[in-house]
Amino acid sequence: MPERQSPLTRLHRHSLSLVFGALFVAALLGQSVAGLHQLNADLHAEGFPRVSWAHYVSSSDFAVDVAENWQSEYLQFLLYVVLTVWLLQRGSPESKELGRAGTESDEAQEVGTHARADSPSWARAGGWRRAVYSNSLGAVTALVFLGSWTVQAVAGWVVLSEERLRRLQDPVSFGDYLTGADFWSRSLQNWQSEFLAVGSMAVFAIYLRQRGSPESKPVGEPHRSTGIEG
Questions:
Q1: Closest Cα partner for 207 from 195, 219, 194, 193?
Q2: Residue 31, exposed/middle/buried by CB under 10 A (0-12, 13-18, 19+)?
Q3: By C-alpha distance, which of 173, 139, 143, 168 is closest to 158?
Q4: Structure confidence by residue, pLDDT tens digits, 173-183
Q5: CA separation (Å) from 136 to 2, 21, 100, 105, 143?
Q6: How confident is the model at residue 172 (pLDDT cuts 50, 70, 90)?
Q7: Which conformational region is residue 170 in: left (phi greater than 0), alpha (psi within -120 to 50 degrees), or beta?
Q8: Are 48 and 166 spatial neighbours (Cβ–Cβ below 8 Å)?
Q9: Of the candidates 200, 196, 190, which has an alpha carbon nearest to the alpha carbon of residue 73?
Q10: Helix ranges, 101-180 (H)
Q11: pLDDT of residue 2
Q12: How far apart are CA 91 and CA 22, in angstroms?
């Protein structure tokens, strides 16, 4: 029989995703309020009427700010998921063990004839289904990255064109925007921070510890230990 769980037990077992989901919603709402005040201040200074919160959150101004953060985060996830298949960092729990670079054997990955009874059905299957499922995490993060980067590009183009029209200047074409400073400044200022964060975390975790965290080695684990989680 399935194990019966109390509501508190179920909440605790999903507490990580629930807490981060709540933090995400709170931060997004806070961003919308702060962004609305900033936009209205700019519009007022230029002699234009203020806009409502509903108008702002459905506008390109809000979309470009949200999308440029999403695309950089999912680019970070995509590169981390894919590059850690092959690249190693001695002493870091963020790296696989030194002798396990690559996609590994079917036995190590528990697929096909090596799958367990409770393995996902597509891990037990063969052919294209196993191939798709074996790369599904990277594929989904890539799709979210490309989708949010596209939204950033379109929304940023609209925002820049609207700003130019308010200054009685001609709007730019979409092609000119994609090769212009605004688009690449928005992208690169986020990318560099994500690359720094991931790279520094991989190195910090060699020498520093956080007791009880799976992102850290056990407190007493030697610095040289690689691929060991607490």
A1: 219
A2: middle
A3: 173
A4: 999 999 999 99
A5: 29, 22, 20, 18, 10
A6: very high
A7: beta
A8: yes
A9: 190
A10: 106-109, 121-124, 127-134, 136-166, 174-178
A11: 58
A12: 34
The stretches of the chain forming alpha helices (DSSP H) are 7-13, 15-45, 53-57, 60-83, 106-109, 121-124, 127-134, 136-166, 174-178, 181-207
Q: In which band, very low, low, confident or very high, does the pLDDT at 214 lie, cut at 50, 70 and 90?
A: confident
Residue of 224, 215, 82, 225 whose CA lies nearest to 141:
82
Q: Tens digits of per-residue pLDDT, 58-110? A: 999 999 999 999 999 999 999 999 999 999 999 998 898 888 899 888 898 88
Domain map (residue ranges) of the chain? 12-58, 70-230
Q: Which residues contact 230 (CB under 8 A, 6 or more apart)?
A: 93, 209, 210, 211, 212, 213, 214, 216, 217, 218, 219, 221
- CA separation for the pair 48, 55 (Å, rounded): 15
pLDDT at residue 46 in the model: 86
Amino acid at 111: V
Q: pLDDT, tens digit, for every residue of 1-60? A: 556 778 888 888 889 999 999 999 999 999 999 999 999 999 999 888 999 999 999 999
* C-alpha distance from residue 133 to each of 125, 128, 145 (Å): 10, 8, 19
